[in-house]
Amino acid sequence: MKTKLFSYLAPEQLEAFEVTARVGSFSAAARTLGKAQSTISGLINNLEIDTGLELFDRSRREPHLTEHGQSLLAEVRAVMNAFNRLDAKTRSLVAGVEDSITLAVDEAAISRGQLHTTLAAFSEAFQTVSLHLLLAPENDPAMLIREGRADLGLMLAGDDYPEQFQFKGIGTTYFEAVVGAQHPLAQLAEVSANNLRDHLHLRIAGRGREGTASSDFSHRAWYVDSHSQLIDMVRNGLGWAAAPSHLVAPHLADGSLVKLPTSYQLTPFPHGVDLIWPQSRTLGHASRWLIDTLAKQVSGKR
């Protein structure tokens, strides 16, 4: 025997049923939906005929869900949510909004507050777009875009980009030389470049880097691909590092890190920040929104 499919159920019927169950009466549902009460009653009557189930008990002043109605309510709400998502997705595609975006971010280029503010606004503005956030230090955003694994990159400015890249300079970030509070370097009133040579230099190295560059400041260097891991290692006294000001600020405030009073660099060292994307990519509405909003966040220009 062939299974009966409920393909005849109309969205308007389900909506009338769900709203009536939620607001408690046919008249209130009619006001909520901007329809005549007779229309609401008719839609629900037809739904009961189509399903073969009595969904509301009408023996009292106001209708109450029957056991069958209670049982179907959650399923109806799930179907309505699916209808709404389908409608939103269709509208987005017609408007040129991407289905998904992969964003590769170097944490050195933007504070977490700026990034989270941008992502919260993106979630509200583009509810149908799936976002994949990749944390990628150094030149890894460019590597991921070149390999087709990311659509947009936010990174420290490079000296040059291949012809297949588009880029936009959007601001500046600053680096501080820091060390754990108990490290020998923290006890010095002034730190010269020579003072650093005999102490382990902790550095960021992206996964795309071929080999590791030697340190200009120290005879020994270790490399890590995570800013948070690097800072934890510095806090625990393993060595010193130059790290983004916005990432070390909380640890300077709680005393677990101290700023090195270097004689060779009297102010935080600046780095440019760029947004990059492949020249071959046609930017959709969501990508353009991300580029504009991230640029405003990092540059401070609203």
For the record, the CATH class of the largest domain is Alpha Beta
Overall SS class: alpha/beta
CATH architecture of the largest domain: 3-Layer(aba) Sandwich
Oligomerization state: single chain
Total domain count: 3
The profile of the biggest β sheet is:
7 strands, mixed
The strand count comes to 11
Rounded average pLDDT: 87
- From the N-terminal CA to the C-terminal CA, the straight-line distance is 65 Å
**What spatial form do the alpha-carbon principal axes imply?**
elongated
Q: What fraction of residues sit in β-strands?
A: 15-25%
Task: Give your account of this protein's structure.
The protein is α/β, with parallel strands linked by helices. It folds into three domains: 11-94, Winged helix-like DNA-binding domain superfamily/Winged helix DNA-binding domain (Arc Repressor Mutant, subunit A), CATH 1.10.10.10; 100-169 and 272-299, D-Maltodextrin-Binding Protein, domain 2 (3-Layer(aba) Sandwich); 172-271, D-Maltodextrin-Binding Protein, domain 2. 40% of the residues lie in helices and 21% in strands. The chain is built from ten helices and eleven strands. The protein has helices at residues 11-23, 26-33, 37-51, 67-94, 112-125, 140-146, 193-196, 227-235, 245-253, 285-299; strands spanning 56-57, 64-65, 100-105, 130-135, 152-156, 165-180, 201-204, 221-224, 240-244, 257-259, 269-278. Strand 1 (56-57) and strand 2 (64-65) form a beta hairpin. The longest helix has 28 residues, at 67-94. The protein starts with 10 loop residues before the first helix and ends with a helix. 29% of the residues are buried. Keywords: DNA-binding, Transcription, Transcription regulation. Belongs to the LysR transcriptional regulatory family. Pfam families: HTH_1, LysR_substrate.
